[in-house]
Design brief:
alpha/beta; Arc Repressor Mutant, subunit A; Rossmann fold; 3-stranded antiparallel beta sheet; 8 helices; 19% strand; elongated
Length: 206
Amino acid sequence: MEHKDIPDIVVGRLPLYLRTLQHMAQDGRLLTSSQELGERLGISAAQIRKDLSQFGEFGKQGTGYQIEFLIKKLREILHINQEWDLVVVGAGDIGSAVVRYRGFANRGFRVAMVFDSDPDKIGSQVGDFTVQDGSYMVEAIRAARVKVAMLAVPAAQAQEVANRLIEAGICAILNYAPISLNVPPGVFVQYIDPAIHLQRMTYYLV
């Protein structure tokens, strides 16, 4: 099934299902149901069944889902049954926190390189990595054939850096800069802006 056949909102829920299932597996659980998943996630059981049915039949009526089997299938669907190298661009507060973050382990990703253009940061140590000169970013990423990047630079620099990442062969960008990026077809961008989420929540507080 081609990617375009599945609504992005459905794809966006799959990692939530996977995370919940992994927590269940860690608790020693073997089986679950769409009802239980729905209660844990605040999503209707019917929606969960509909989402999963777009990728195949993973459970049996009256029995539910085998947790380890469904974890395996979701990892295959999300292509994280392999490990993806990540490039982090920007070694400031956010970028450094991402590099030190241990939550990528066993979830399909690992930081491979860190770049910055600030002479005071180039050559410094962030976690297990030495910050590399952003001037050589395109060549280094091409040589390593990395496809995924995290962008943690100021908004004024984000588009220019994104253009260079795309030139280097990056196909997926997680953008922490508070700005929307213009990218060509075939390049996927996700945005993380805490202020946006806070503003969404404060709407409900009055």
